Each structure stands twice: as C-alpha cells, then as structure tokens.
Amino acid sequence: MDSDRIGGNTEPSSGNIMVLGLDVGLSPKFDEMNYQVIGNHTKVTEFVLVGLSKDPTSQSVLFWALMFLYILTLAGNSMIVFLVGVSSQLHTPMYFFLGNLSLLDLLFSTSAVPLIMAHSLKNYATISYSSCFAQLAIRAFFALAECFLLAIMAYDRFVAISNPLRYNSVMSSRVCTLMSLVVWVTAFLLTVVPILLFPISFFGHNAVNHFSCEVQAIFKLLCSNTISLEVMMMVCAVISMPVPLTFILISYLCILRAVLRVHPTEARLKAFSTCGSHLVVVTIYFGTLIYIYMRPQAKKSQDGDKIVSIFYAAVMPMLNPLIYTLRNKDVKAALRRVTCGAKSSCFKHTTARWVIGQHK
Predict the structure, then answer these.
(1) Sign of CA dihedral 220, 226, 229, 234
(2) Residues 22-54: pLDDT tens digits?
(3) Which backbone phi and psi does 358 adopt, to 5 degrees?
C-alpha cells in the first residue's frame, strides 16, 4: 500500500503503519479508503477513527458503559422536558430554561454517544468526509447553545433574587421565548459561518487519533494554510466561552451583593439554594470546555483527551438532570403528582372494569 495515503512513514514489508506517531497494526480497511487525486496531492474523502483501544475487552466495557450512561441520559432529560411541559407548577421562566437545557443535553448526547458506541466495537471505524464534518458541526452547535443558555439562566436567577416583585413582568413568557430563540440562532450562526467562509480540505493524512470527529483531533490533520480559519475560530471561541462565562460571573457577583443585603439568614440560604444547582452545572461544564479547547494543544492527540471527551459527551448530559432534580423540591413534587395521578387513574379504571364485570 502507498504510504502517503496513511499519513505516516511505512515500510511495505513491515505490516504496520504509523498513524500520527502511533504504531498500529495494518488493517484491510485501509485498502478501502477513498481518495481523490488533485494535482500532485491525494485529497482525503474518508477518515479512519483509531479509537480508544484495540483490546476486545476494553471495547466491550466501553460499549456497555456508554449504553448505561446513554439510557440514564435519555430517561433523566426526557423526564424533565415532559414534567416542564405537563406540570402547570413548572410553567415559570426558570423551568422553561431548564427544559431547554434538558432538550439540548438530550440532542447533544444523541448526536454523539450512539456513534461512539458503534465505533468502539471496531478497531478501525471509518467515516466519510461529509459525515464527519456534519457530526462535528452538529455537536458544536449544541455545545455553543448550552454555553449561551447557561448565561441566560444566570441572568434569570439574578432578576429573581434582586427584583422578585417585578420578576414575572421582566421575565415574561414573550421575553423568555425571545431569549431562547436568540440562543439557538446565535449558536447556529457561530457554527455555520466559519464552515461557509473557510472551507477546508485534507491531503494525505486521514487517520484521526480519536473515536469520533472531535474538532481538536481533526484539525491536527490540516495541511493547508489555516491562518484565516484559526482567526475565525478564535473569534468564535471568545464569543462562545469567555463572553458567556464573564456574563455568568458578573451575574453572580450582582446576586451575591443582593443577597448580602437580605438580613434574615434563612432568607439568604434560600436565595443561595436557588442558584446552587446552576453553579454546579456551570462549573463542571465550563471547566471541561476550558480543559479541552483552551489549554495548549499538543501536536498529537493523547488518550487523556479521549477520556475527557467521553466525560463531556456521555457523562455531563446525564449529570444535569440528577443535579437539578436531587436538589429541587418543585421538580420532585411535580414528578410525584404525575406519578400519583397516573396510578390513581389506573386504579379508577381497573375498579370501574371490576364493578362492571360484577354487575354482568
């Protein structure tokens, strides 16, 4: 096989290939890679995902762990979306945004985890160029939307604590809907504009040292001039992470100042308790993003980066429903009402059928 198709130095008789500096056993799947010859270059039209491990036991453990986390994510986030929709007690701005957050987590996990599960069972999973960038764009869209949504949720808590008497008028249903729409549209533009303005291509290197189309691993393979793209991505990164995070910090400083003016200690604790869950989610979410995207990047992908990516894609969407429901009396009360209502309805229906049967 021609060595420059793989992007590493190989010897025809060695039986091994070098993938981004990793010694990987030769697989027949590499013979089936698709390329387009353009001038003196071989343009990549398909990527090889190296994965986390080639050990069958490790692959199986990863698959079932992801399956377990994904089921919990589906159950937890679907429950919150359902409760916010059907329970009139949760028809408030705070729970409207919480429903949006759960929907985002549900969609983000669905866009990433099933594909990672499928790739985890293969030594060399392949994905087409267009599918890879579609996956990358979709995941970026949901991640950016969550950054902005967490910022809006911080503003919602600031209004609720600093000006409770005007809370319902300031955060009206129309305002909440408009804010939510701005979040989705802004995330969409920040995702699509760089792709449309700076189309990129890859020549020669096609092996991604990751189990999915992670942006950091993909961009390590770029061989063309990327200065304009890097500038655009830096602008998008500043808008999508530091700006919302700064807004959140300012909101909580204002919340702290407002709470300190409240004299009864119990009232202070109650005010802080309404922000506790959101603070935990913000800390975990932005802490993970900063570790992945804003620290100095090595030229080669590390296994530690893959573990953090699994946490980001599979664990975090599962944690958010637990964080909000375990400490939230309103959500637990709504769940009890829905559950007890369903049981009561089922009991009445069964009793009615039994009575009719006795009369017959």
Answers:
(1) positive
(2) 334 434 444 344 434 334 445 566 777 777 767
(3) -70, -40
